Each structure stands twice: as C-alpha cells, then as structure tokens.
Amino acid sequence: GGMNLDAYNRVDVNVRWEAADSLVVALAVDNLLNAHYEDAIGFPAPGILPRLSVRYRFECRWRPRCRRRSG
C-alpha cells in the first residue's frame, strides 16, 4: 500500500509598492502562519519564508535604444 500525506493549509502573502516611477519595493512571505507539512514523504517544508526585493530602473537618456518605449 501507498502512503498518504496529511492535508494542510498554507497562507502566502505578497505586497508590492511602486514608490516612484523607477522604484518598486516588494515583500512576500510564504507560509505566513508557519504550517508544518510535507510536500513529499520525509521532506518537511520550510517554516516562514520572508523575501524582500527592491527594483530600481536607471534611465539612460543619452542612448536611443534604452529610452522608455511607449505603448
């Protein structure tokens, strides 16, 4: 007979903020409520996993090919 994994619920959140035209800040948290589960038998999933990202786009106005495209 096969083995079954227990059912689980996991809560993930993701928030993104465009602070300026060229600056985006994002925060994501996987498994926010710290659910204990296994995706595969014998391999427990990690606990709470936060991630922060900051993206800045530099403008290069002196070269035509890197200007912002419209449309």
Walkthrough of the structure:
It is a single chain. This protein has 71 residues and is mainly β. It is 0% helix and 41% strand. It has no helices and five strands. It has a three-stranded antiparallel β-sheet, with no helix packed on it. Strands 3-4 form a two-stranded antiparallel ribbon. A hairpin with a 2-residue loop joins strand 1 (13-20) and strand 2. The termini are far apart.
Name a few traits of the molecule:
3-stranded antiparallel β-sheet, mainly beta, 71 residues, 5 strands, single chain
Return the string of H and E elements. Answer: EEEEE
> What's the shape?
elongated
Distance between the termini: 58 Å
* Largest pleated sheet: 3 strands, antiparallel
Indicate the low-confidence ranges by residue numbers: none
Look at the helices and sheets and give the structural class.
mainly beta
**Rg computed from alpha carbons, rounded to a whole number of angstroms:** 20 Å
Helix content: under 10%
How much strand content do the residues show? Answer: 35-45%
Total strand count, please?
Answer: 5
What's the helix count?
0
Report strand order across the widest sheet: 1-2-5
